[in-house]
């Protein structure tokens, strides 16, 4: 009987190693994978700020919520698990900093206790044992930034067009037409950024810093960059909620259905946009359509950006289309941009490379 008891203890020990250890290693692999992905995605939003809060936390949280570690979402405590810092590739040392102007990396440290009620094991609890599974990952980002002011008078359908170009809108009243650069109905070409200055190529991602400011379309309610979602409009609309002219294009650029006063973008090549036909229009009339994670607009396709963040604070990524060399940023209105007031201050962040530089 004594030999049998000793043998059973030994067998339980081996069973623990065979079953529980395999389970622990699986969880370790799952936790490391989630932590690595969250660190890279956090780095992508690190330099984007809103109310002095980096987008890294919201990005990391989004990944962890969608992860599967031992049948549930990976645990994440933003106060203790995430650090912004400076990674030195030569010394391979990470130094924590709160200064986003010099930070170039995100470090995530996560852990799970195996053998407790939330993550039970088969045999180890018999011996009153638990195992702490932990993961650490550091992701480094390189990229360029460009800050600009976007005037409310900036008409996206005048982007890339010469002075004197008219942006028509199916209206007989000439005072409701905009012309670029001169004349009584002067609007303006929207703010532009050379993609070469950001060192990005087609397929790369850009995002927008927490946008500040507001615009007024002339007699309306001043709003932030997300615009007034109760007043959807297309260029040439007869009234709010009217999408009659959505398929209509101006100067080779597509129309769009979006909230008035919202921030918009359009990518162009070096060529004048009116030399070729316009792409299909985009529709941002629903909250879900505006709450995208990533958007891949076509060349000359006017698109909604808003304040550059999802409703959960996650940074929205815009993918640069093939052939693009210029980015134009504008305001949304239905007609007569020349009487608009206000504007947006923002920074465009270009992600040139994100790499996992440390995993444990």
Output the keywords.
32% strand; 360 residues; 2 domains; elongated; Jelly Rolls; nine-stranded mixed beta sheet; 4 helices; alpha+beta; four-stranded antiparallel beta sheet
* Annotation field: number of helices: 4
- The sequence of SSEs as H and E is HEEHHEEEEEEEEEEEEEHEEEEE
Which CATH class of the largest domain applies here? Mainly Beta
Tell me the Rg in angstroms: 26 Å
CATH-defined superfamily of the largest domain: Galactose-binding lectin
Round the mean pLDDT to the nearest integer and report it.
85
Total beta-strand segments: 20
Estimated helix fraction: 10-25%
Q: The biggest beta sheet, please?
A: 9 strands, mixed
Stretches with pLDDT under 50, minimum 5 residues: none
Class per helix and strand makeup: alpha+beta
Strand fraction equals: 25-35%
CATH architecture of the largest domain: Sandwich
* Total domains: 2
**What is CATH's topology name of the largest domain?**
Jelly Rolls
Query: Which word captures the global form?
Result: elongated
Write structural notes for this entry.
It is a single chain. With 360 residues, this protein is α+β, with helices and mostly antiparallel strands. It folds into two domains: 2-77 and 109-135, no CATH class; 144-355, Sandwich (Jelly Rolls). It contains four helices and 20 strands. The protein has helices at residues 2-44, 56-66, 78-81, 287-290; strands at residues 49-50, 53-54, 82-88, 93-96, 105-114, 131-151, 166-167, 178-179, 191-194, 205-208, 212-216, 228-233, 256-260, 263-268, 282-283, 294-295, 303-304, 317-319, 326-331, 341-359. Strands 3, 4, 5, 6, 10, 11, 16, 18 and 20 form a nine-stranded mixed sheet that branches. Strands 9-19-14-17 form a four-stranded antiparallel sheet, with no helix packed on it.
């Amino acid at each position: 009987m004594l030999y049998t008891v000793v043998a059973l203890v030994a067998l339980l020990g081996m069973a623990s190693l065979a079953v529980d250890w395999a389970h622990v290693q699986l969880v370790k692999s799952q936790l490391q994978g989630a932590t690595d992905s969250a660190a890279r995605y956090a780095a992508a939003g690190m330099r984007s700020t809103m109310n002095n809060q980096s987008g890294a936390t919201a990005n990391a949280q989004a990944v962890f919520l969608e992860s599967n570690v031992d049948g549930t979402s990976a645990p994440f405590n933003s106060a203790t698990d995430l650090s912004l810092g400076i990674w030195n590739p030569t010394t391979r040392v990470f130094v924590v900093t709160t200064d986003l102007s010099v930070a170039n990396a995100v470090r995530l440290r996560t852990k799970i206790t195996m053998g407790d009620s939330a993550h039970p094991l088969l045999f180890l609890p018999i011996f009153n044992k638990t195992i702490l599974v932990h993961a650490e990952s550091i992701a480094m980002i390189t990229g360029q930034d460009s800050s600009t002011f976007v005037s409310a008078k900036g008409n996206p359908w005048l982007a890339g067009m010469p002075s004197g170009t008219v942006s028509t809108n199916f209206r007989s009243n000439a005072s409701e037409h905009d012309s670029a650069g001169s004349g009584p109905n002067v609007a303006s070409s929207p703010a532009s950024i050379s993609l070469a200055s950001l060192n990005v190529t087609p397929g790369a991602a850009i995002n927008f810093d927490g946008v500040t400011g507001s615009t007024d379309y002339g007699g309306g309610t001043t709003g932030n960059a997300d615009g007034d979602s109760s007043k959807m409009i297309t260029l040439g609309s007869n009234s709010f909620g009217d999408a009659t002219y959505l398929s209509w294009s101006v100067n080779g650029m597509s129309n769009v259905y979006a909230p008035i006063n919202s921030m918009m973008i359009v990518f162009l090549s070096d060529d004048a946009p009116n030399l070729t036909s316009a792409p299909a229009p985009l529709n941002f009339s629903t909250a879900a359509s505006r709450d995208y994670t990533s958007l891949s607009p076509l060349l000359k396709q006017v698109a909604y950006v808003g304040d550059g963040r999802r409703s959960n604070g996650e940074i929205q990524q815009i993918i640069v289309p093939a052939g693009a060399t210029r980015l134009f940023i504008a305001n949304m209105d239905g007609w007569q941009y020349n009487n608009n007031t206000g504007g947006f201050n923002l920074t465009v962040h270009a992600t040139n490379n994100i790499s996992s530089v440390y995993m444990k």
